[in-house]
Design brief:
Largest sheet: none
Radius of gyration: 13 Å
Order of helices and strands: HHH
Shape: globular
Number of helices: 3
Strand content: under 5%
Distance between the termini: 35 Å
Helix content: over 70%
């Protein structure tokens, strides 16, 4: 599960352009992957009537959820430093 969360978070970081060669924030990727999988993956899987089985719709939903988590996380982090 940790590996799947890490991959999901890493893909979300790539989509947002937050990865740099040799310097990835793996802790952020894992947290975003777990939260994104829970929120996005569960919602998409239930809405597409796939249940809780591992299906492509759940993986896509996990990536979308992780992207949303990273965007919100970045907005909150940006407010604190401003």
């Amino acid at each position: 599960m940790i590996l799947i969360a890490m991959v999901t978070g890493w893909i979300a970081q790539m989509i947002l352009g937050r990865t740099t060669p040799g310097k990835n924030n793996w802790a952020e990727a894992i947290v975003a992957g777990f939260v994104g999988s829970f929120v996005g993956g569960l919602l998409i899987s239930l809405l597409s009537d796939d249940g809780l089985d591992i299906k492509p719709s759940g993986f896509i939903g996990s990536i979308v959820g992780a992207v949303i988590v990273l965007v919100v996380w970045g907005a909150i982090r940006g407010r604190r430093t401003a």
